[in-house]
Amino acid sequence: xxxxxxxxxxxxxxxxxxxxxxxxxxxxxxxxxxxxxxxxxxxxxxxxxxxxxxxxxxxxxxxxxxxxxxxxxxxxxxxxxxxxxxxxxxxxxxxxxx
Length: 98
Fold this sequence. Notes:
By secondary structure, the chain is mainly α. It has 4 helices and no strands.
């Protein structure tokens, strides 16, 4: 409930806000929130659910966990695609230089 949300927020503000991975997750979350139509799925960050709605804490926490799983999947796919593109570019460069 409230204690869990408060503690998670404290830990996030204390130690995660400077992390590049955390900042990337927030950017991806922002894009997904705006890209997914509300009629399809009402994507909202935990902060928004807790602060600007009457969503019960336990519901908001569970929903945020499900959304985080989706976000981390999206981020993993994006990282894998970037790595594959880097390997392909390096291979093309190696062939050109040979």
